[in-house]
Design a protein that fits this description.
This protein is mostly helical and 511 residues long. The chain has helices at 3-11, 13-38, 44-76, 89-116, 131-137, 152-160, 169-173, 190-196, 210-213, 219-238, 241-248, 257-265, 270-284, 290-304, 307-310, 313-324, 368-381, 396-410, 412-420, 425-434, 443-456, 461-472, 474-478, 483-489, 498-507, and strands at residues 122-124, 287-289.
Length: 511
Amino acid sequence: MSDGEREDVVGDRLFLNLLVERTVLKYFASKAKDQQSQTQSQTTSHSQTSSQDVMDEALGMIQDYLSKTCTLSATTTPTPKLQPKLRNRRTLDFMLDAQKKWRERIESRFFLIVQEYKLKLSYPTSTHFSREKFIDNIRPEPLSLTMFVYDHQDFFDAMNSVYNPNITPFHESIRLSRSIRHIMFQTPSLDELRSLFSQLSPTLLQLGTQDVIQSSNHQGLSNEIEEREEEGRLLAQANTSSECKHFCKRGCPTPFRNFIWHHALCNNATNVHKLQYEELWSKLREELKAVDHLVAADVCFITASDDNFFIFKDTIQEILLSLIRDPSQMNNEGLQSGIDMDALPSGIIPFRSMCLLVAPFTFIYRSSSLLFNVFSKMYRRYFANLHTINSHPNGILRLCETFTSLMETRLADLVLHLHSIGVNGLAIVFPWMFLAFSGYLPVSEVLFLWDRIIGFDSLYVLPLLAYAILSFRQKALFGATTKKEVEFILADFRSVSAIPLLQYALFAEDI
């Protein structure tokens, strides 16, 4: 067996184990029962002995297989390394080809909208407008509020069309639960995830859990929270990036989150980012662009239907415009565009609900320059990977693989039930991960979740939380018989507490 084949066996060992164990045991048990019924009279004891020998042999084969695959896992999967390398050049080539096709598709769609509505790619405007007046003058018209270049479903379909030439027909035949059928990445095991997220242990104080929220009746816990908040206050003044990142692992106190996030993500001083932001806007106000109408349409559509974000409409639009029109974003991996920079200075094409990635920041920052400085860093380091086809360890493809792997190894019965009624779990949870749960979870829960993204420098909390939600509601899901019923069961996020569910997914043994 070659090294590549050995890695493939390791990648699917747990799901295969379950299928092999159930199939073999059921077969031999049935066979033994038939033999007993046919030889009831004189050979009863002999048939029972033979049946038992057959069962022992089957169990021995399974145990031998498990021991070998576990040995393979220990020798081929480093712990807790979560950035596996690509196997060969062919993998990189097919990924680059998929990136190119996706960019061509959305750029063509962008130009079709421009031509259909007779928009100018760029035209000068009056420079004496203030920033507020300039934003007020940017309207969705002539576009409708429902106009967009692409949404999460378009991107999901594009991922589903990616083909990995290293995949064999055998691998495709065993992946019933996978909507992204043609990609196989090495993903972290549950033990590796537990090691990575050890600071989420229930034995440690976590800001964002229900017991902390209800801690007023527990004096000892209240004292711990006060100590945690005091530590956060000191860190907010210290301006040390590494310590602030580590602090985020267990949640940030609300009064100091703005400073801690800034120190964790940004290295420049306050006056520097103010100057940079003013310089960006001095150039931005010189002309209007076709992409501005798409931004305005998205912001108006989303904020009009969400009371939480409606009052921040202008701020959200300002920050999203700043990102789309910032030329420095062009250097971000996977965002290079074939469109002339005059049309898209950043190379970023806005998508439906993109403004939801900005919206939670408006609850933290009052200063637009500080908000943009932190958001742009968060976007470049994390969010861009959620709508870019790449093989990055924090990329959406690996997150989808991780979710699917967790479902297959821990909730195989639920996977098979959903498959039997024509429902793919990944397709259901993909919109959640695509927007990092913004617009789904309450804002406070989103912020606690994003604390952990910054602290652990990882987006793996997203598939973990998606898996935890399905696990937590599996009893109701087993009763569902249609896709609509599944969607209805999973639609209500009001009772979802992100951090306790992450702890449940990681450390519960009875899932």
